[in-house]
Amino acid sequence: MLFICIAFAIIVPYLICSINPAIIVTKIKSGEDIRKLGSGSAGLTNVLRTQGKTAAIFVLLGDVLKGVAAILLIKLFCHLMMPYPKILQPEYTLENIETYTFFCAWLGSLSAVLGHCFPLYYKFKGGKAVLVTVATGMTIGWLPPLLALIVFILIVAVTKYVSLGSIIAAVAYVVFTWLIGVFVWHNNHWYIGTIFTGIIALILIFMHRANIKRLINKNEKKLGQSERKK
User: Fold this and answer.
1) Tens digit of pLDDT for each residue in 189-219?
2) Which pLDDT tens digit goes with each residue over 101-136?
């Protein structure tokens, strides 16, 4: 049953999060492909710059909802497949079920990020998955992603660089997941979240590689600056 849950955690979040609200909203609003506008990223920031605030709100809601839905479905599926007590399979103790579900949820978070970054439905070219990372993380355990989100807001407020805030917050997310898991929640399987957030952080940094180059060259656009078509 565990292997079925793992397969579910890989496939379903990827398929759900391959749906890209930025591409859909932009197509409806202007008939264009957001990946051919502005920075070329199919994400919230690019939609805000090229399509305006109203379109960006719909994208924000869509990204958050798909991330939350993916993790909730995993938790529900795991509990249906591994109910407690399990008379026919006594190895599924309550502690084991919680650990397995925790693992599958984090695996689902990673799969959701990959689905958003490399969507099946859009030739594997999507967004940078910052919102999806926050949404899935908040559904698994609210405090570490909330603290990372605060770091993001502070960095952007001071520098006006969304990309810089995203990169620093991604690293902070890993640190907060470890610290909160060990010293606050005293979670016996804290290392699972730390490993997965570490992998997710590397993906987010990779997705921001062009932004990093622009930051180094000092030509990265700040929040509030409009974008032109490519």
Assistant:
1) 889 999 999 999 999 999 999 999 999 999 9
2) 999 999 999 999 999 999 999 999 999 999 999 999
For residues 22, 28, 32 and 34, what is the CA-based torsion angle, rounded to 10 degrees?
Answer: -10
Q: What is the pTM of this model?
A: 0.91
- pLDDT tens, position by position, 123-181: 999 999 999 999 999 999 999 999 999 999 999 999 999 999 999 999 999 999 999 99
Residue 151 · residue 222 · CB < 8 Å: no
Residue 12: partners with Cβ closer than 8 Å, 6 or more residues away: 70, 73, 74, 77, 108, 111
Spatial contact of 37 and 26, defined as CB atoms under 8 Å apart: yes
Longest distance between any two alpha carbons in the chain, whole Å = 63
Distance CA 174, CA 44 (A): 23
User: What does the chain look like in DSSP terms, one character per residue?
Assistant: -HHHHHHHHHHHHHHHHTS-HHHHHHHHHHSS-GGGBTT---SHHHHHHHH-HHHHHHHHHHHHHHHHHHHHHHHHHHHHHS-SS-SS-TT--HHHHHHHHHHHHHHHHHHHHHHHHS-GGGTT-----HHHHHHHHHHH-SHHHHHHHHHHHHHHHHH--HHHHHHHHHHHHHHHHHHIIIIIS--TTHHHHHHHHHHHHHHHHHHTHHHHHHHHTT-PPPTT----B-
